[in-house]
Write a structure and sequence with these properties.
single chain; about 350 residues; alpha/beta; Rossmann fold; 3 domains; four-stranded parallel β-sheet; 12 strands; about 15% strand; globular
Length: about 350
Amino acid sequence: MSLIDISLTPSVDSETEAIFKRVEHLIPRVEWPLHAPYVAAINRLKRERNAVILAHNYQVPEIYHTVADIVGDSLALAIKAAETDADVIVLCGVHFMAETAKLVNPAKTVLVPDLKAGCSLAESITAADVRMLREAYPGVPVVTYVNTSAAVKAESDVCVTSGNAVQIVEALDVPRVIFLPDEYLAKYVASKTTTEIVAWKGHCEVHERFTGAEIRRFRQGEERLVVIAHPECPPDVLAEADYVGSTQGMIEYVADVRSQRVLLVTECSMADNVSGSYPDVEFVRPCNLCPHMKRNTLPKILHSLQRMEFEVTVDPAVAERARASVERMLEFSRRAHRG
């Protein structure tokens, strides 16, 4: 396959000028000549391949705002992946998200720009661990966070996201559930329901670094500071927050506190991306970056589309069972939306 010209030509400049106008408050003009040739080439290849790019909220602005077709949190990406009519899905996030996209699109090609874009939380538990827990707690339903591998999902009864975990646990109407793998999310869910929660001790390496003392330091002398935290954070962080919610819930809450200073206690790039929609909100950025999310870059996306690499597949025997747990979650979300 021939190489793609990634020089900044007058044609590329003209082709991407409207895109730059949308992001000039996020990406400095001096940086745009570096991005524009890749943006133009990626968008052209998307049309040729009938491809869509799904980007998680933690992606850098030059991906999130210039080449992504669908953006959102884990639940939104799972739902939109199931609805797309594209032939090719490029998942700019981490590996478990690409697996989930493949589960709900078994006939489509799902690509990731970097196979090493993993997740500390997903890697904290294995399918064998889930089977061990089932033996220790016979008959207890296994509720699994989507931040897990397909193999773990296959051993589970239902998947959840941070946004619907409480509702799904309560909808099961059982006295006890096994909740995997995030210990802090499990504790948050336990605080919101009378259902007994059996938790695993997995953690997100980004969110576990925040501390309550750090949040209190940010609050010093800041009466107008609104703290919005993700439930993957430790309990002492959540205790300091004005609002605790999923990635999408955090974004929606920002809309309710306009013209104030906001501290988003989550991955750093999310504040960059959300700020584009709320220019009247001042964002305080305690910049904890996810090294796995940052493996995705424009050059790697271009390579992925040009070479059709790297394809994510799931063993059919695993996929069938994993798909069932994801579909239960999606059906719950559809019912909640209808209701």
